[in-house]
Amino acid sequence: MENIGKKLQIVRELHNFTQEYVASKLGITQAAYAKVEQKQSIPKDLLDKIAKEIYGVDSEKILNLPTDPKIIIQNIFDNNGVIINISGNISFNKANPKEIEEIKRDFEELKIKLEKIISRII
């Protein structure tokens, strides 16, 4: 299994949360939370608490999160009717033609942000 700490860091950074913010929500220090993001695994109850209370998702979503930015981007856009293959080509299944340019701009911004986040982590 991939490092759960990296996955938690990715999710935190995608939400633009600081370690201090997450730690305060958990009732622990920033240093203690920083250690969580360094671990290969954490207790299920802690992961459940982080997932539900901070991100509002089931812990399985975090466990199944890929760390490859291209796969993350593809998963995000697949759920919104936009298909992006691994080479970065975009096709639209359900998008309103007026929204296509906006989606392309959003995609490029997201891609850059994800690549920066992943490059710092890996």
Textual characterization of the structure:
The chain has seven helices and two strands; from the N terminus they run H-H-H-H-H-H-E-E-H. Helix 1 (4-14) packs across helix 7. The longest helix has 22 residues, at 100-121. Helix content is 61%, strand content 5%. Strand 1 and strand 2 (90-92) form a beta hairpin. With 122 residues, it is mainly alpha-helical. The chain has a two-stranded antiparallel ribbon with strand order 1-2.
CATH superfamily heading of the largest domain: lambda repressor-like DNA-binding domains
Class of the largest domain in CATH? Answer: Mainly Alpha
Which stretches are low in confidence, meaning pLDDT under 50 for 5 or more residues running? 80-93
H/E element sequence:
HHHHHHEEH
Question: What number of structural domains do the residues give?
Answer: 2
**Spatial order of the strands forming the largest sheet:** 1-2
Largest β sheet strand count, sense and barrel closure: 2 strands, antiparallel
